[in-house]
Amino acid sequence: MGMFPYRNRKRTGAFYFLLLLIAMGLTLYGCRSSEGPDRMRKRVILDVCPVREMVFVDKIKVSGNLKSNSQVACLPKAPGKLIRYVVEEGQAVKKGDVIAELDRDVTGFKYQPLLVTSDIDGVVLELPLDVGEYVSPSTPVAYIGSQGDMELMVYVSEADVHRVKEGDEVLVYIPGANSPLSAKVAVVSRRIDPRFHNARVRIFIKDGASDLLPGMFARAEIIIGRHNGIAIPREAIIRPAGTNVDYAFVVNNGRVEKRILQLGRLNGDFQEILSGLKKGDLVVISGQGKVKEGDEVETRNSCVD
């Protein structure tokens, strides 16, 4: 061993140099680790939208079938037996058009059918008789409804009917129509049906009624008032499956907060918020699945007016 002192000193120096490198590496790693994972990770950029004020419409949704606002019974001028109807239900007729033919069957007179005609322009609402039935001058052979004015008969629950007034604005939606029709509440019954706990409301339709037919189904919204409130885009609201809890993420001072919400009415793509937020709060509208409460994030305003 004494013959190679220089070689031993060289190996020892290399060994200590290696230990020094390892120690420096561990020190640097420890310093980086002490920064924490949040500082090492790049912050997520979230799309946000400020809570805004909006006007909300208070309305009651109902539905029913259209009927003519005025109708006339077609009566024969003399008794006889119904031979045939010349028209069909739903057919448009003019004043004087033949509706039905009757056989008077009077002995000694040349046979000539008795014609029953319409007294108004309108639509055939109902043909109530069967061929062969005997009718008197007081028996309605048909019912004709005027086509200018239509009525929608609906029923409003006893909990809401006190809020409906004559003259209230109504929007009537007809299947297949491009836009709703404007109408008014005409009559509000003050009698509650004890079986169904509702009251009858009659809605008169003026504009656009000429294109409607009795019996058509329609939905309607009775406008009972308006109020101011705060709202957020509907996509900001999260409801976990199997729950009835709604919440949204808010970014406050660069950190994500979770807010439990109480919801109100809808206004297009915006949802009214009754509690849980205030005007100006920044709610997250996309990327909610990328973050959790307490995360540090960056934001960009992506709200569309």
Helix/strand-derived category reads: mainly beta
The count of helical stretches stands at 2
The CATH topology of the largest domain: Elongation Factor Tu (Ef-tu), domain 3
Provide the CATH architecture of the largest domain. Beta Barrel
Average of per-residue pLDDT values: 86
Across the major sheet, the strand order is 2-11-14-13-12-15
Query: Which residues sit in consecutive blocks of at least 5 with pLDDT less than 50?
Result: none
CATH domain class of the largest domain: Mainly Beta
In one word, what is the shape?
elongated
State the CATH superfamily name of the largest domain: Efflux pump adaptor protein, beta barrel domain
Work out the radius of gyration. Answer: 39 Å
Count of the domains: 4
Sheet with the most strands, sense and barrel status: 6 strands, antiparallel, barrel
Topology, number of strands: 20
What is the string of SSEs from the N terminus onward? HHEEEEEEEEEEEEEEEEEEEE
Helix content: 10-25%
